[in-house]
Structures are given as structure tokens and as C-alpha cells.
What we know:
Order of helices and strands: HHHHHHHHHHHHHHHHHHHHHHHH
CATH topology of the domain at 2-147: Serine Threonine Protein Phosphatase 5, Tetratricopeptide repeat
Distance between the termini: 80 Å
CATH superfamily of the domain at 2-147: Tetratricopeptide repeat domain
CATH class of the domain at 2-147: Mainly Alpha
Largest sheet: none
Number of strands: 0
Shape: elongated
Strand content: under 5%
CATH architecture of the domain at 2-147: Alpha Horseshoe
Amino acid sequence: MRKQGLSALFLFLSVMIYSQEDPYLEGRACMSEERYDLALSYLNEALRQNPGETEIFYQLGLCQFALKNYPAAKESFYEVEKRRKAMGSFYLAKCEVKLTHPELALNYLKTHLSSRYKKPESEILLDEDLSTLESMPGWKQLWEEKRWYSSGDKEFQEAMFLKDKGDYLEAINMLNKLEKQGYKRTIVLTEKAAIYDELGNEKAAFSALKSAVKSDVRNLDATQQLAQFQIDDGDADEAVTSLNRVIRQDPARFDAYLQRAEALSMAGDLAGAMEDMNLYLKYFPSNDEAIYRKGMIQYSNDRYLDAIQSFNAALELEQGKAEYYFARGKTYASTGTTRYADKDMSMALDLDPFNGEIWYEKGLVSEKLGDVTAACHCFDKAYQYGIFKARDLLDTYCK
């Protein structure tokens, strides 16, 4: 008990010492990394600052359930249920199964099936906890009591099955039919967009996502996906508007901060982009990919020394990614530090020897160093691997 007390004290002190402005976001960040003990400490602090907040109770319940502390999880989900009917019912059913109260579990499952939070039928039937209720007399009675899932629900699940199998055309046909019937339009359109994207039809995917968001602005998945299309299309201002909406409604969608940083950078707002990147890295300081993305934003805004620092930090965490060496090499080349650039290009090619773009850039560096033979070799490799503009340089330097 003394050891447990010291452990709890350590976690609490960790929160007090290292907590940033928002303990809720700290908790959610820890949850995403499955550090549930520490997440509990942050979320309890968040609850202290925001007493009675439903979403905090829900996240506390998820943490406690993951830690197999089922009585505490039940208590948290019950608080959710008191504040928002049926929101906690699914996990309350699972908690009651774990606590060997099958009758109560069936009651909560009935509440869940009657609610707008209802999960797909297959998810319930395959749940490892709820499936243990199948031997109970009340299980059959519950499913025979009424038709919990409509024909539209079943057709949508069939469409999702076809999508997962890769039968995209048949899935699209079923989704088109559901859309005409008016079934959950925003969800249907989002799934259509995903299929169109898989098929390479970006225009249709973009159109479907716009319609999905227009149908329901609370569809954050569609809004966030739409923002990525807007970024890829160079429409930075629209992307920022979309991502502002996402983050305002769900501040714990951490990847949205990375997207918005890219969009802000495109829009010329480097300070705003860095603010988003630093906020993300505050919660995920060891995420080498995010540090690399920060460096790329700095590089694209001609902040070369800052970019080199970011690429150095990313490489300290991960030395097996060619793009990190390549990015630092291009940055060194932009500062005129050509020998460092050449070394980084060589490291990148060791990791990714068939990358024509790296061969092309290394050729440019070799030419600056006066090594025409090496430059010609690099341009020839670049051309072999699909960088056709290298042909002109071969003709210029390598006749």
C-alpha cells in the first residue's frame, strides 16, 4: 500500500511539475500513447478545474477500463450517463460484464441499442465482453424484443464489408442507393469520398467531402479530410477555416494542429504555423516526424538555421529515415555549406538508393564542389529513376 501511495504521489507531482496550460489535452495525449496511469492524473486535474464536465468523465472511464479498474470505470461512465443519457451505456454494459452482473449489462445494452450512440451491430456481436452474454436467457429475448437495426443500417454495413474487401464499385452502388434514400447522408458521403480517394478520383472525393460537411458541420472526420484536400489543392485559407472548426469542436484532435500548421505556412503565417507545431510538440516532444515537419515548414520559409536545428533533433530520435538526411542536406546546400550537404545526401542514398530526387540534388551539390564525374553519375542515376529534368544537365556537363 505504501508503494502504491508513493506511486500515486509521484504521478500527481508529475502533473503539477510538468503540466502545461491544459491538463485535459495532456491527458488525451497520454491516452494516445497508452500511458493510462499518467493520463488519469492529468484528467483528474482537468476535472478539478472543470467540475462535472461530461467529456472528462468519459475519458476517465476509458482510462480506468483500459487499466482494468472496472469499479472506477463504472463510476465514471455512470457520471457520464447522468449528464448525457446513453452516452456511457456501451461501456457501462462492458463494465457490468467484467463485474459479473450480466442482468445489469443487458439493461445497459438495451439502453445503448435504443440510443443515437448505437454502435454497428457487428461491433456489438463481436465485442469480446458483450459476446459472453449470449448464453444468458435475456440475450435472445433482447434481440427478439424489436428490430434494433433498420434495413438501411444493414445495407450500410454490407457496403462497408464490400469496401473492406476492395469491391469498391459495388460498395459505391450501395452507398449511392442509401444516399438517395436519405440514410445518414453525411456518413454515407464520407465513405463514398474514401472509396473515390482509393480509386484515385480526387475530384469526386473532394466533392463528396464538401457535401458531407455541408450536410453536417459536426462531421469532424469529413471536415478534417476536406482540409487535407484543400491543402493539397493550394487553398490554404479554406483549409485553415476548416481546421479551425475541427479544433474548436475537438481540441484533442492533435493531428489537426499539424495540418493547420502546414496550411498557415502556405498562407504566409509562419508565426501561426510555429505556434501550432510547438503546441503539438509540447504534448508529443519525442515525435520525430512532427519535428521533421516543423523543419520542413521552416525550410520552406527560408529559416534555414532553424530548420537545421529541427532536422538535427529529428535525427537524434530517428536515424533510419532517408528523408531526414535529405531535408537537412538540401538545407545545408541552401546555406552554402556544400560539403555537409554532400555528406547528408550520401547518407540519404544509403537508406534510399532508388530515389531519383536525392540523386538529382546530390548531383547539383557535386557540381558545386567541382566534382563533375560524380555529378554526371548522380544525374544519370536521377534520370534512370524518373527525374527527367536531369537529361538537360547530362547534356550540359556530361557530353
